[in-house]
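Q: Got a minute? One more chain.
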Amino acid sequence: MKVTYEHYRVSDIAALEYPLRGKPKINDVHAYSRKIGFLDRALQDLECKPLPRGGLTVCTIFLDDEDRTVSGDAYCSLADNFNYRIGRRISYGRAMKELEASDEI
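A: Always. Here it is, folded:
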């Protein structure tokens, strides 16, 4: 079993349109790496920074014995500070629930 995580953040430019509460719009969250920054070239050119609030973490579990994957996601509200560890924990738990549900079928 292999587990991967992807993090998506809201840019400071997109934040100008938001009230600071609720779930961010899916079109306004972009792939983000702590080492590189935003992976979207346009956002790199604009030198955008991530908001400290809001985002999305996706956990994907690749199963060794089968050609199958399951995934779980965790949205961070715009009212809450984004936390990598909490996002990984929640998204992993949701992916495991998905795996258990698919095994019961």
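A: The beta strands are 2-11, 29-33, 37-38, 50-63, 68-81.
Q: Perfect, thanks.
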